[in-house]
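Researcher: Next sequence.
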Amino acid sequence: MLELEKTNRFTEQALYYARSEHTEKDYSVREMALSQVVHQAIADNRYLLLQNGVRLEVEEMQDTVYSDEKWVRFILKQLIANAVKYRTRQPVLRFSARRQQDHVTLVVEDNGIGIPPSDLPRIFEKGFTGQNGRIVQQSTGIGLYLCKRLCEKLGIGISADSSERGTAISLSFYINCLIQEVQS
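Model: Next structure:
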């Protein structure tokens, strides 16, 4: 099952890459519960996570946002795969959300090997694998690039913070005034 998951992930990544210039033809933006899309992405990677002994910590999330569930799930699956790829001996993957004024930010945080400060500004560039990519042979430099492109097209902010204690990728969903009134 792990090999099937891996094959599906690479096939999906190749297909999304091929369609990345024209993703707007495949958007279906609607209300989605963050907790649901996080749990679906985890379920899609369950064998990868189990095989690598990843401990999950998923905070309770009440927020809903407006976006395309399929594309957000793809982004989360890329982040999960990276967390596993660059893990430490006792890997932990943490999902949390916080609401700030006109944004809901979903944070995917690991306790992996981290990204060197010199590489951090370039991690979303097409083909960039950095120092860690030279160590981990499976790096393609496409995963985070696709995440960034999809986030740009969906109006989701994406940022990374990293140290030798791990990496946190933040996805920031904008909530306009009308949506805030509906959710309050």
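Model: Residues 177-184 have pLDDT under 50 and may be disordered. The radius of gyration is 16 Å.
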